[in-house]
Write the structure tokens for this entry.
Amino acid sequence: MEMAFRPAPEFEVWRADVGFVAAERTARTNEDEYLAGAPDLVVEVLSPGSTADEINDKIATCLDNVCSSFWVADPKRKRLSVTEGNITRHYGVSDSFHCDVLNATVSVREIFE
């Protein structure tokens, strides 16, 4: 589900198309305030209006502010790009991979279904 957060104090509130936050971080956030820092996992879904600069800025800012894994879902090409640290891996619809943040194996096909 869409998640509102404030990546750093100098930023306005951002919205991730999908976000995941570990339970211990959620417990430290009051219900009436935005998450401080980016979610542990951020998923952005490409739309026709998305630009490479916009996506790259989001990736860099989120990874610099707590996010461990940033996913870019491309529904047109059924491709998922996963950035962790300074490494980006690309997965096709028939691929699966292990996500440390979720401690689970993720099927790319299931993401796009």
